[in-house]
Amino acid sequence: MNKLSCLLLALFVWLQYSLWLGKNGIYDLIHIHNTIKLFKSINNIDQMKIRNNKLLYEIHELLHGYEAIEERARFDLGMIKLHETFYLTKF
User: Are 58 and 83 contained in the same domain?
Assistant: First the structure.
């Protein structure tokens, strides 16, 4: 083998090593991708966003309207307004 082909072969091997095993190479990319998938599956980000949006809406309703407070008092505490008739039904 002449010197040029040996140099090209060495350069090719070095580039392949850098691509696959070097810093920020394919191996690191696969590792980071798997880590992101793991954390997304643990956290269930989409479900948390939906839950947080529901809670923010409920907080807004409780701060700005008496209907939400009244509804909560009726269902959780059994509130009955004055001059209302309460009917207990069994299903």
Answer: yes
Let me know: does 48 contact 39? Beta carbons within 8 Å: no
pTM over 0.70: no
Distance CA 55, CA 78 (A): 23
Whether residue 49 sits in one domain with residue 65 = yes
In this structure, the answer to whether residues 48 and 78 fall within a common structural domain is yes
Count the Cβ atoms, other than its own, within 10 Å of residue 66.
10
Q: For the chain, which ranges sit under pLDDT 70?
A: 1, 91
Say if residue 33 is in the same domain as residue 55: no
For residue 86, report the phi and psi dihedrals to the nearest 5 degrees.
Answer: -100, 125
pLDDT digits (tens, 9 = 90+) for 74-85: 888 888 888 888
Structure tokens at 24: 């920020």
pLDDT the model gives residue 34: 95
Closest CA to 17 of 7, 29, 26, 30: 26
